[in-house]
Design goal:
591 residues, seven-stranded mixed β-sheet, 11 strands, 56% helix, globular
């Protein structure tokens, strides 16, 4: 069984030393009580819950998987899932960041991101059940009527019910304009929803009393394409007049997918057969309503990548310390033992440092983005909220796209440290590789994130968030230009920032001349942007380490990892720059 220990020291370092989160969060509306003492208590309790309750059945849940009963059309989750969800709900975790008037605790999104990492690292399959509910709550809070919020949102916050998002259909994946699910007017303001949705996480399970589906469908008078989509609330069980559960609605799981990973998470094919549903938000505005959840969902998937990479790193580092094999090239380091451990090998250290640079850099990036979501939602000044909103919009495709791709690299390197033992199921690390594969696909593939970054956030929005972020990097470089501890990092960071700006302007001009250049360059532009962004958060981490109260060993590890990142990972930007400049002409038609 693999080990897991919540990385509380690094979470605290990122939150308080790098991001100064306590000072920011306590100045926001309703944030007076969000002090470090409170946040630390929440993180520590989340760590205990994940380590003791979730992590132990991560492997067994993967081995057992979900079971589908064809006759009853029901799903049974693996052993331990139901009991863990009950404890999770009783502990108030299902409403951690939800508004108090819905029964939540109204803690900042930043704390939600930190605790979500801890829970997902403990057991990612299990954590998808409450995670999907968060998205459904967010949609109902923003677009539901007061009656809908009281009827459907409160029980989800309490943990008695769960929620889903039903978008994808067999013929309509990322192009939701092609969806065919219909919504016909019914009785008393209801609608009859008919259609099939696929890849619906937590669409059916045994963890809660009721499941509330948010479904995209077309009204009879809907215009064609994405402008004709509305959103509906469709409960698994209808409700009686007093709010108690009534008859079963005509929505069922007709199957569950047999997947490469995340086998403890039920991914369902959902059939709606004139199921009773209720319009949420405005007619034909369902896609816009669903997209209000997209930033949070995409940031959440980035956190999944971080969580898997963190647990993989913990186990590969532990294995490298304990595994005795071979001798150091410069002579035995442990002559009293039969062999040296793997850490004496430079290439093993390269793999572990690569993982550490990815994990700790990703954590700082994701928490930085989360702090901005709190500023966007709660700052008292409109200009401050606007700037935070633009920063979030710019960073989300990087936080989702790059972090999930680097999670592939990190889990792969972890398995490589194990050698042949990593390929064996009993080691546990091969599960991390399998589980990590999906995160580059759902909530928008990496290609979609790249197109969003370049096509929308840079070109369509004229790089509003990008300009703010560059200004922040430039200000940081000026502030630390004469700091001896940062000199090795400031020059390459400043150079990369300028090159990033120049590359963006040149690329925008090329796209104006030929729109195909956007598609040809988008992926490499995303990677370039991501590596430049991580360089900034690593430089900030070194600056923070110099004044941190953490141990000297902890601070030196930060400096060493940052130096490794700048020397061996930031130069990857050169390859992506070359690919961008090669242009669409190097992508000929394929018969």
């Amino acid at each position: 069984m693999t080990i897991y220990k919540a990385p509380l020291d690094d979470l605290r370092f990122a939150l308080y030393d790098v991001l100064n989160a306590e000072a920011t969060l306590t100045k926001l509306q309703g944030g007076e009580g969000h002090t470090r003492d409170l946040l630390d208590a929440v993180l520590e309790e989340a760590g205990r819950l994940s380590e003791a309750l979730l992590a132990p059945f991560n492997a067994s849940g993967d081995e057992e998987g979900c079971k589908y009963d064809k006759a009853a059309q029901t799903v049974t989750t693996p052993k331990g899932f139901k009991e863990a969800f009950k404890a999770f709900a009783e502990g108030g975790w299902t409403g951690l960041t939800q508004a108090e008037h819905f029964g939540g605790q109204a803690l900042p999104n930043t704390v939600g991101t930190a605790t979500t990492e801890i829970f997902q690292a403990g057991n990612l399959s299990w954590s998808l059940y409450p995670l999907l509910s968060e998205g459904a709550c967010h949609a109902m809070e923003l677009h539901g009527t007061e009656e809908q919020q009281n009827t459907y949102l409160k029980p989800i916050v309490e943990g008695r019910w769960t929620g889903t998002m039903c978008l994808t259909e067999p013929q309509a994946g990322s192009d939701l304009g092609l969806l065919k699910t219909r919504a016909e007017p019914g009785d008393n303001g209801s609608y009859k929803i008919t259609g099939t949705k696929i890849f619906i996480s937590a669409g059916e399970h045994d963890l809660a009393e009721n499941i509330i589906h948010l479904v995209l469908a077309r009204l009879p008078d809907a215009p064609a394409g994405s402008r004709g989509i509305s959103m509906f609330i469709v409960p698994k069980f209808k409700l009686n007049a007093d709010g108690s559960l009534g008859a079963r609605n005509t929505v069922v799981a007709s199957n569950i997918e047999h997947k490469m990973g995340l086998r403890g998470s039920a991914t369902c094919v959902m059939n709606f057969d004139a199921a009773e549903g209720y319009l949420i938000g405005q007619p034909h505005k369902g896609l816009a309503a669903m997209f209000t959840m997209m930033n949070a969902a995409r940031l959440g998937v980035g956190v999944q990548g971080l969580a898997l990479a963190e647990r993989a790193l913990q186990n590969s580092a532990n294995y490298a310390r304990e595994r005795l094999q071979g001798r150091a090239l410069s002579g035995p380091k442990f002559p009293d033992k039969a062999a040296d451990n793997l850490l004496v090998q430079p290439d093993v250290r390269r793999m572990l440092l690569t993982q550490r640079a990815i994990v700790e850099g990703s954590r700082a990036l994701l928490l930085y983005t989360s702090v901005q979501t709190d500023v966007e939602a709660r700052a008292t000044d409109e200009a401050t909220r606007k700037n935070a909103s633009e920063l979030v919009a710019f960073l989300i495709p990087i936080a989702k796209g790059l972090v999930t791709e680097l999670a592939q690299e990190s889990t792969k390197e972890a398995l490589q440290v194990y050698g042949g033992h990593g390929y064996i199921v009993e080691s546990g690390v091969e599960q991390f590789v399998r589980d990590a594969r999906i995160i580059t696909l759902y909530e928008g593939t990496t290609g979609i994130q790249a197109a969003d970054l370049l096509g929308r956030k840079i070109l369509q929005l004229q790089g509003a968030g990008f300009k703010l972020f560059l200004q922040e990097i430039q200000a940081f470089c000026q502030q630390h230009a004469k700091d001896p501890a940062l000199l090795p990092l400031i020059a390459p960071l400043a150079k990369t920032a300028k090159e990033w700006a120049d590359l963006t302007l040149a690329l925008a001009a090329r796209v104006q001349g030929n729109p195909e250049e956007l598609g040809a360059a988008a992926i490499d532009y995303l990677y370039y942007s991501g590596y430049a962004t991580l360089a900034y958060v690593w430089a900030r981490s070194v600056a923070a380490a110099n004044t941190s109260s953490q141990s000297e060993a902890f601070k030196q590890a930060k400096r060493d990892t940052a130096a490794f990142y700048f020397a061996r990972m930031l130069p990857r930007c050169l390859t992506h720059k070359a690919a961008i400049e090669a242009g669409v002409g190097t992508l000929p038609a394929i018969a």
